[in-house]
Amino acid sequence: MELYVAMKVLWWLLLGVLLMGLAIMVGMDMGVGTILRYVGRTDGERRVAINIIGPHWDGNQVWFILGGGAIFAAWPVIYATAFSGLYVVMLLLLWTMIIRPVGFEYRSKLPSATWRNAWDWGLFVSGLVPMVVFGAAIGNTLQGFPYHFEWNMASVYSGSFLALFNPFAILCGLLSVSLSVYMGAAMVMNRSEGALYERCRRVLVLAGPLALVLFSIGGIWVAFLQGYSLSGATPGADANPLDPHVVVQLSRGAWFANYRALPALWLLPLLTYAGIGMGTLAGRAGRSHLAWWLGALAWIGVLGTVGAAMFPFMMPSSSNPAQSLTVWNASSSEHTLIWMTLWTAVFVPAILAYTSWAFWVMRGKVRTEQVEGDDHAY
Amino acid sequence: MVVPSDTVVDLSRWQFAATALYHFLFVPLTLGLSFILAAMETVYVTTGRVIYKDMARFWSKLFAINFALGVATGLTMEFEFGTNWSFYSHYVGDIFGAPLAIEGLMAFFMESTFVGLMLFGWDRLGKAGHLAVTFLVALGSNLSALWILVANGFMQDPVGAAFNPVSQRMELLSFFDLLFSHDAQSKFVHTSIAGYVTGAMFVVTISAWYLSKGRHVEIARRSLRMGALFGVFSVIGVITLGDALGFVAGSAQPTKLAAMEGMWETEPAPAPLKLIAFPSDREQRNLGPTVELPGVAGILITHSLDKELPGIKELEQRAAGRIRNGIPGLLALQRFRANPDDLAALATVKEHEADLGYAMLLLRYAPDLSRATEAQIARAARDTIPPVWATFWSFRLMIGLAFLMLIYLIAMATYSLSKQCVAQNFLLKFSIWLLPAPFLASELGWLTAELGRQPWTVYERLPTWISASTHSTGYMIFSLLGFTLIYLVFIIIEMFLMVKFVRQGPGQHDPVSHGGGGMHPVLSQPVLQREE
């Protein structure tokens, strides 16, 4: 295999890893935001929940930033087309997400109940909305986006904002929210006790099965969706979405073609079922650390299932399918990908090491009286 | 061809400038204060004197309030290239995206992970461990600045890249050229030291305010001395590196330089430095009286006595030539894109590659380049001159503020060393009014650099107007209103909290406010204790 082709596939995999990191780590924090008002009935309980993720939310959020940066660096035309085409959605995502850093940092700086209550709603919105958008974006990607390119690669998006919230996309959005709530609940269980712990357990035991049901419905739904199939592409060629030799066909069930060709891929959805199923049982039994790790495996299963179905498509065009963005025509140059690979090989292991260390340092239960006695706590 | 309307381009520029300037209110303080925190904690760890730990904890509370908004508004910046500058993102993403991604990998991850431990880990980590964490936060934030400015350096001086007609974008040729670009390197040092000045001014002016009120004296006088000494060295560094940056701009961006100096005509070397002038962009001359220092600009910028600096009118003539040279290139590119087998067209594109950007400037006035008139070319050539008035004065105000801070910080350093901060001094009362100075200087520096870069997003390669996404005006008004509303609410809350916590001071832990003399209560509650 040519080096450039290998690099493209590697960066497709790495993008998947980053999206999984984002879903697991940022999703967990957002899940805590989403359930905060339900599981924390008193200000003390809410502060405990916030302080459980307090030392980590900022580091976790970098998975999101890195995901964006990696799309820009390795898949620049996807970054350009998706971010501009989905303008209003991106603003919705951004405006809700920027409430989060401020919410964490400022919420407990004043004693006023109104003030804190307002920030709790802020944290709820900034936990729920981005996860809906994240899932809905994946749902829409499976259906294709209405865009095309001019001769000079200026992208033109012809869809509307509301069309992005179609039933299938909403289903995916709900799946993403339920998984994030599951992970958030598991994390709070890890480091809390008493009533807060019990409520989180109840949430986890509900969110897990709900995610499984949504995932199953989604899978059946995809079988009836128009999938895309590619022919005539030159995998090792310079990135050019306007290659006249490329032919893209739409047909119902085409997203299952990769699974028919390589049945081992069925392990990915299986991983989802196993992860959530066993994770829910573990959570019910109070084994929340195990439940957390199994939930992370489930996320890997969900995103892996979608990725395996779509390969080599990354962002199909519904209005001009031949210009769909794929692994072969949307990447950066070989030189850039090689450099990015070198940096990634050095720093991703380092990131995983110090992130684990940070969690280890902050391990153990958080209690109300501790939070209230610390003027640095959130 | 679908292009963004003039209104949309203008609104996109306003939005980017507003959000970037807003973000840049918080970044310099993070850069500088993180090192000051590390310095205070180093003294604590090496001498064991608890008051330095109190100082670090107090200033880190203010650091955190500032940091939250820096992080929040930084998210906007990452989105905005894609949302509002999609043509740009595709055209140079192969190069520009890499430093941004590496920034995340190498710097921002480190800064963000360790900032959590810095704020929450006082009782979880040993002294040395916590100090190491604080240093890693400072290192991470400064490395962030490095990669962001490497990306920005490419916009100013696009080295290490070439245009690829097949993928219709610029692609990276040499990572080393990109990383070690003169513009990127000198701007990184200039900008991060400007951050140190900001951190120093923040600590010094607030400490001086405490001293003028006789509050928190023990913490304030120590903070003031550390801040003032750090500040004096930093402000000298920022001025020196600013000169280096001028030298770099002189060779790489002659139009920016001419605008910064208000030089309409080419003057015999060495050119005079205009201290005061009133440039008129419309009439292309300086109105009214001009105060000049003979020979100084030529010497400062070219570091020689005999190199000529081209004036604006001459540069405009040169631009017209490059536009004419770019036309056949861009027309050939269009033919090649329609028919990838047209090798003659490909050869023409290669031959005119350096001037393709100039032809894109003309595209704004002549959508059909083959029928472009001389009047349209002249109009496009006029566009190559950045806004002279605004660039000239942003630059001068920035320098004025730098020298003001230099004098102030020297005075405060002298005061803190000779008087030991015990005597009252008129400077103490006056200090707090200088707190905005470093922030204003940073904003003006950004304006000088980015206004001076116009009309390009990537100097001489990609015009600003064509870089914008093709949104409707309605979308742009919607997003501008949204940003205005959210950012306004945020800044009000941030200022409120900042002022509240500054007024509150180091709080009950400060021995002086309790009249406790030298005795110091145990500061750290065993909070967030780990369960065994």
Give a brief outline of the structure.
The complex is a heterodimer of chains A (378) and B (532). With 378 residues, chain A is mainly α.
What structural class results from the helix and strand content of chain A?
Answer: mainly alpha
Low-pLDDT runs of chain A = none
Q: What amount of the residues of chain A lies in strands?
A: 5-15%
Rg value of chain A = 21 Å
- Straight-line N-to-C gap of chain A: 52 Å
Major sheet description of chain B: 2 strands, antiparallel
Gyration radius of chain B, in Å: 26 Å
Helicity of chain A, as a percent range: 55-70%
Q: Which stretches of chain B are low in confidence, meaning pLDDT under 50 for 5 or more residues running?
A: 509-532
How would you characterize this protein structure?
- The complex is a heterodimer of chains A (378) and B (532).
- Chain A is mainly alpha-helical.
- Chain A has one domain.
- In chain A, 69% of the residues lie in helices and 6% in strands.
- In chain A, strands 1-2 form a two-stranded antiparallel sheet. In chain A, strands 3-4 form a two-stranded antiparallel sheet. A two-stranded antiparallel ribbon of chain A has the order 5-6.
- In chain A, α11 runs antiparallel to α12.
- Chain A is globular.
- The termini of chain A are far apart.
- Chain B has 532 residues and is mainly alpha-helical.
- Chain B has a domain of 367 residues.
- Chain B contains 18 helices and six strands.
- In chain B, strands 1-2 form a two-stranded antiparallel ribbon. A two-stranded antiparallel sheet of chain B has the order 3-4. A two-stranded antiparallel sheet of chain B has the order 5-6.
- Chain B starts with 5 loop residues before the first helix and ends in a 28-residue tail after the last helix.
- Classes of the chains: A mainly alpha (378), B mainly alpha (532).
- The interface between A and B is large, with 84 and 93 residues.
